[in-house]
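Course assignment 3, question 2. Fill in each field.
Student: A.L.
Task: Predict the tertiary structure for the chain below.
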Amino acid sequence: MTEKKPKPIIFAEALDEGVNSAFASLRNEIMKDGALSSKDKAIVGLACAVAIRCDTCVEFHKKVAKMAGVTREEMLEAAAIGGLVRLGSGFATASIILDD
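Answer field:
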């Protein structure tokens, strides 16, 4: 079975192969081991994907997390943090109603 490419990659390739290559290089540079391990970065990426409510991003970062050795339980906790962040931003936006 052929794996379907994520939509951002399809879009970058449609623009220009150089764009896709640059995006992949940036992603690889950011996600490599540094002060945070690549596993930790995969967990953060998954939480962020949940927080911005991007289904394609969640699918991609779930795959990356699995490849980095992130457990299902770690993914669930990361997703819960992302959901909590989103709830907070929703409340922050809703508080505009109180500005009178």
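Instructor remarks: DSSP finds five helices and no strands in the chain. The chain has a mean pLDDT of 89.
Grade: pending
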